[in-house]
Design goal:
Length: 291
């Protein structure tokens, strides 16, 4: 039974909960605790943490209580009221990463030399074209990739929004420019002699390709490094920049929203609408028509 309980929560989510619980315990909290203690912790951490971070920590602390058979103090009126106050004072906006747009992708993949360069080119182009998260790139297996006449089919076994592993297919067509994700992946797999196992792997300074997959964190660092190399600010570049960049670029190119949703796998239009607003800030801008 324990393996199924463990599998019920994604690894990244579990790690986040564990970190949140450690922070609470380091602050002086205990499990179980009363609502007064949790409320005091929230008020103290509100000086340095965002409302989003505090909300996640409260959820993690609550789960720790419930898993040990205790009442969840986060469900009490006191804690809920304090959290409402934190959201009103600090706001609820989250830090947004910068999308890597089409022009950025072309620049980042134009001059990629050596074994790592071939790998990075394939990682960037496939991640962008398929709108993949960094965790999805990290877990991509050779058996999940199928080359077809139209291009490439990626069999996504699981994802952040598909914890039950229903899976879905993503089509990546042949590129119309030299920056073709299908050719880039073919080149990497051929050069690295990969016929099974992880697709994207670490490469040592001695040009030895490891059998283990790149970590999600390593993928984020690769993107930052490649962005910096072409003059982009890496401060707000993350593993999500490929995914948000494809969405934003597609919107700017006039791609139908339902086709973008099909590529990204968004369950609702709520998140896509945010990208649509950001991508169209200067389209028929009211000030532009006046000044």
């Amino acid at each position: 039974m324990s393996q199924y309980l463990t599998a019920a929560i994604a690894d990244n989510t579990r790690r986040a909960y564990q970190q949140d619980l450690r922070d609470f315990l380091a602050w002086g909290g205990v499990i179980p605790c009363g609502p007064e203690t949790l409320a005091a912790y929230i008020a103290d951490r509100a000086d340095t943490a965002s409302a989003h971070t505090i909300t996640r920590r409260v959820v993690g602390i609550g789960r720790a209580h419930v898993s040990q058979g205790h009442a969840d103090p986060a469900k009490t009126d006191l804690v809920r009221t304090v959290m409402r106050g934190v959201r009103r004072v600090k706001g609820t906006s989250q830090r947004q990463v910068s999308p890597l747009l089409k022009a950025d992708i072309l620049a980042m993949t134009e001059k990629t030399e050596g074994l790592r360069g071939v790998r990075d080119r394939a990682l960037i182009l496939v991640g962008f074209a398929a709108a993949l998260r960094r965790s999805e790139l990290a877990t991509l297996d050779f058996g999940d990739v199928e080359f077809v006449r139209e291009g490439l089919v990626i069999h996504l076994r699981t994802s952040k929004t598909d914890q039950e592993g229903a899976g879905r297919k993503i089509g990546v067509p042949w590129g119309r420019t030299s920056a073709c994700p299908v050719k880039a992946l073919e080149n990497w797999l051929s050069l690295a002699c990969i016929v099974e196992g992880p697709v994207f792997r670490s490469v040592t300074r001695h040009r030895r390709i490891r059998s283990s997959a790149l970590s999600a964190q390593s993928i984020a660092l690769i993107l930052k490094s490649r962005a910096s190399a072409v003059g982009l600010s890496a401060n707000n570049i993350s593993g999500h920049s490929l995914r948000s960049g494809l969405v934003t670029s597609a919107i700017q190119a006039g791609v139908a929203v339902h086709k973008i949703q099909q590529q990204t796998g968004h369950k609702s239009l709520a998140m896509l609408n945010r990208y649509i607003r950001d991508a169209s800030l200067f389209d028929s801008n009211a000030a532009g028509g006046v000044l």
